[in-house]
Amino acid sequence: MNQTRNFSIIAHIDHGKSTLADRFIQYAGLVSERDFRDQVLDTMDLERERGITIKSHTITLPYTSRTGQDFELNLIDTPGHVDFSYEVSRALTSCEGVLLLVDASQGVEAQTVANAYLAMEQDLVIIPVINKIDLPSADVERVKIEIDRELGLDPDEAILCSAKEGLGIEEILEAIVNRIPPPKGRVDRPLSAIIFDASYDPFRGAVISCRVFDGKVQVGDKIRLMSNRATYRVEEVGLFRLQREPRRELPAGAAGYIICGIKTVSATRIGDTITLDAEPAAEPLPGFKRVKPVVFSSVYPISSDDYHALAEALEKYVLNDAALVYQKDSSAAMGQGFRCGFLGLLHLEIVQQRLEREYDQAIIMTVPSVEYRFNLRGGSTVTVENPQYYPDPANIESAEEPYIKASIFTPEQYMGAVMQLCTERRGLNPRFNYPAPGKMEIIFEMPLAEVIYDFYDRLKTVTRGYGSFDYELFGYRESPLVKLDILVNREKVDALAGIVHQDRARKLAVQLCDRLKDEIPRHQFKIAIQGAVGGKIIARSTVNAFRKDVTAKLYGGDVTRKRKLLEKQKKGKKRMKMVGSVMIPQQAFVAVLRSEKD
C-alpha cells in the first residue's frame, strides 16, 4: 500500500482536466503515439464536442519517481458538472488527495470553489495546479492571490503547468507521490469497499468501479451489496488501464473493478458498500444516499408508431445511466410517452441528445418542471411534478417550491446585469464576496424553477462569457403557485400545461399563445388560443379563418342582398366552429417547447 496513491482531478468546466489526464497517460506510456487521441478517457462523442466529462473514468498509472521507487497512481476521474455533484463526492471519498486545477487566465470560478469545499469536507490533501500558463492572457500572480483569498490554500505550493504543451507534468506527478499520503486500511479485516461508479458491458453485465478500504476481494468470493443485501459471485477483478486488466485479487488500498454478473447498472448504487457475504463488515461506509431526480419532463415520439421503439431505447439507455428515472405517461395531444426524472438540466440535454444520436429516436420533450409540494386542508401533503396531477385549488392550504443557493462568479463590470437577471428570476437575499481585484462572487437564493429554462445561457450572454454558475439545493419555501392551462378552441392542451408562480402566469401565457398562433395553420373558422388560470382567461390570441368572398358573384342591386350572403356565411362559420376540431401539427409543439428553452 505504501507504493499506491489514489487521487482525483477537480476543476471548473473547461479548465483542462481531461487534457491533463491525457498527459499523465502519455507520460506513463499506456498509449502509443499512433493510438493516442485527445480526451482519451472520454468515450462519448458528446463529451468531445462539448468539452465536458459526463461519465467518470478510472485509470491506474505506473510511475517511477526521481528516487527510483515504483508507484501505482490511481486516477479516479470525476464528472465536471454540478448535476453530478453526488458522483463527484463519492469519487473523492475514494481518494486521499486531489489536484485542484485552476485556469491561469480565468482564475478561480464557481465550481472551483464548490469542488474545493467538497475535498475539504473529506479532509483530503489539496494540491493547487495552475494550468494554461502558455496562454498570452495568463496572469499567474492574480490567480495565486485568488487561490489564497478564496480557497485559503498556500499559493506558494501551487504547481505551474501547461497540460496542452506538456509543461510541469513530472513536477505534478512528484507532488502526488510526495504530498498525498498512501491509503490506510488492513487486509486482515472484513472486506469494505465503496462503489464510486458503474458501467455496462453488453457481454459481462455491470462493471463496478470500487475502492477497497479494508480486506480483499478475489475471484470466487460471494459479495454482498449492503444497501439492498443482494449477493453475487465474483467472476473477475482487476485494474483499469486503458483496457481492463484482470488481477488475482484487489487488496485494501486498491481502486479497480469487479464483474459479478449483475444485469443492470441500476442494481449497483453509487456510494453503496461492498462486503463479503460470509464475513460482512459491521457497518456500511458513511455518506451513501439515493440520488433523487430534481427536473422532470415528458418524452414523446414524434410519430405515434415509434412508441415501442422509444420504449426499447429507454430500456437500453438506463442500462448505462442509472440516474434516469422514467414511467409510462400519456397525453391527449401527444399520445403515449414517458415521464422522466433527471438530475438537472444538463442531464436532461444529454439524455435527449443521446436518444436522438445513439438510438436514432425522433422525440419531443415537454417543458421541464420541478417537484412542488402542496399542503392540503385536511393536513396532508402531496408532491407534484406533473401538472396533470395538480390538486383541486379549493383544497390547497399552501404551496411550496424548491429553492437553490446560486453562486455566480463574474467580473465587477457585469454586476448590474447579473443583479437584474437574478432579480427578474425572483432572486432574494444577495450577498457579495470579492475574491480578487476586479472579480466578484454574488450569492442569491432563487427558485429552482426559474433556473432550469435558460438561466445559464442568459448569464453567459450578459457577462459576455465570463460569468460562471454553481448551485446547491437547500430546501422548500412557500410560494403562490397556480396551474396555467392553454386552451385551443376551448379544449385544454395538456402537453402545454404548467405549474407557475402567480406573478409570472400572465407573461408566460401571452408568450405561449403568441407562439402557438404563429405555428397553428389557419382553418375554415376562427381559432381562439387562450391561457387560463382556473376559470379565468388571462391571455388570448386568435388564428383568423380562411374567408371566401361570397359577394363576388353579385353585380349590383340592393345592399341587403350582400348582407344576406354575409350573414349566411357567418352562421356557417359558427356551426363549423362548434363541430370542427383543430389539428395542431406536431411541429407546433416542437417549436413552442424548444423556443421555451432557447
Question: Which terms would index this structure?
Answer:
Alpha-Beta Plaits; alpha+beta; Elongation Factor Tu (Ef-tu), domain 3; 5 domains; eight-stranded antiparallel beta sheet; Rossmann fold; six-stranded mixed beta sheet
Unreliable runs: none
Task: Tell me the number of structural domains.
Answer: 5
Mean pLDDT: 82
| CATH superfamily annotation of the largest domain | P-loop containing nucleotide triphosphate hydrolases
The share of residues in helices is 25-40%
CATH class of the largest domain: Alpha Beta
Helix/strand class: alpha+beta
| Main sheet summary | 8 strands, antiparallel
Morphology: elongated
CATH architecture name of the largest domain: 3-Layer(aba) Sandwich
Strand order of the largest sheet: 11-10-16-7-8-15-12-13
Proportion of residues in β-strands: 25-35%
DSSP strand tally? 31
- DSSP helical segment count: 14
Q: Roughly how many Å apart are the termini?
A: 52 Å
